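Reopening closed ticket. The problem is back. First fold of the pair:
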Amino acid sequence: MIDYEKQGNVGIITINRPSARNAVNTEVATGIEAAIDQIEEDDDVWVAILTGAKTEKGYIFCAGADLKQMSVDPGGMQTQRGGFGGLVQRERTKPLIAAVDGPALAGGTELVLACDLVVASRTAVFGIPEVKRNLVAAAGGLFRLPRKLPRNIAMELALTGRLDFPAERAHHFGLVNTLCEEGGALEAALELATQITAAAPLAVRESRKIVLEATDQPDEIGWAMSGEGIMKMFSTEDFTEGLTAFIEKRDPQWKGR
């Protein structure tokens, strides 16, 4: 139910459960967690992409939790380390891009919110409709969505359970980094990943960490983390390579060490 492949320095995770609209069940959750494990452990993978397989009825990223399983096993879509989908609470070091074609609803939206960057086709829609089933969006949607969207917009989505928040509006408010045409989300995500892999992988990971941990903190924490981050880079092989490549007017050959 989870496919994993590598393209160069990019790892691609695909939710492949088209018969259930790529809904998350136990196998999907454990599969995503296993793929993240593989990515984190593989020194040759610098960036990851999460996407959904195309179904017979068209593109869909993820329809959220498998409600049939939830009715008999409410915790079955979670893992101990990753939470829902094996992802939303997972500690990671490498950037993860959501490639969204078609709907990403309920837990599908929450998987997107757990990613670092979002590429979406113009047919993508988002929503957290849990209130329509007397549920609460408990996989991060209620606090991550207001960090990505204006609070009133996030509140509207949370309280109405609307299922029609389009990718173009999400792009307007900054939730989506890149818009593309239907069927092009994975290709566009690979293009974004290529831009990231052209940069030094250790510096990318350290920069990601600082953005996530320091943004909402006082400036002194940001200064301290930034200082610690640059000092870490000074002691790496890639620091010397970056300066040498600049002086020699060539592309750097990063080693990730």
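Second fold of the pair, where the issue appears:
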Amino acid sequence: MKYKLLGNSGLKVSELCLGTMGFGKEWNWGADKETSFAVMESFTNAGGNFIDTANRYTDGTSEKYIGEFMQANRDHFVVATKYSLHDNLTNVNASGNNRKNMMRSVELSLKRLNTDFIDLLYLHIWDNLTPIDEVMRGLDDLVRQGKVNYIGISDTPAWIISKGQTLAELMGWSKFIALQVEYSLLQRTPERDLIPMAKHFGMTVTPWAPLAGGALTGKYLRGDKGRLPDNSKRLNERAVSITQTVIDIANQLGVAAAHVALKWTMMQEFASIPIVGATKVTQMEENMKCLDVNLTKEHIEKLNDVSKIELGFPGDFLNEEGVKMVTFGGFYDKIEKRK
């Protein structure tokens, strides 16, 4: 396992993040305590230190398991959790992005994790109600109180995040260092605005569902559709074409399709640390094999081409040769671009 700096910070995290939404049986699936501990042990022994959870996962059991597991060596782990989703249905302020829910949710997460601080706190999902300045000031207060070390944001429009980052910079508040969004070979739409924004602000992208719910392992092509609806975008003509390309490259390399899909996500030009969930030790061990896969430039180009999306306006418009000509006077290819 190698390590990366998380966003524009000095925080060092493993190049894979362990997703723990399936730790606990409260949702009638997932891993029991013994298995959850074994998965974390496998991840830790491989050098992993970055663990992702949320207040809502398995009704809080995920946080409890993580808290108990890391007690022997708390400082080794970089634990990310989230607030926003409800943890009861009797209090109108027990959900959402508001400051009241933020503070109460963090206090409860600290108790479940049995720790004095959260390494990385994400806003989980945008509620379209709370002013972004309320969010940024509240998060900064938590950092100043020592209850949170760093902040991130998930599942929120790019323009709102941009406003928050700019406001934080102006006010001297803590800024987001990580952006969590759905991203995979089957889901590249964040490239339209969210990922360019993350690059601009120096945020690391932590993709959830990097295997598109298992679609990129090829299991649906083998007939294992489970509860997948027939009209799912993970099994339409485009998805089948992308998945088959992943399988073809995997067969060439003698590895599993999942390894190719994960490695592609890790090799993007922007900083990317995929969140890989596991409810079995064998799943964790199998997923970590992606670290040893070497994709060539040709492999990356082939995967990029088959999964390419339309950026829409203004992305595609700005990339037109005629537009570049009138904008740069013929010097576009001679001008150094900012990375």
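Update: turned out to be a display glitch only; the data is intact. The chain is about 40% helix and 10% strand. The beta strands are 3-5, 12-14, 17-19, 50-52, 78-83, 118-123, 148-154, 176-180, 204-205, 275-277. Please close again.
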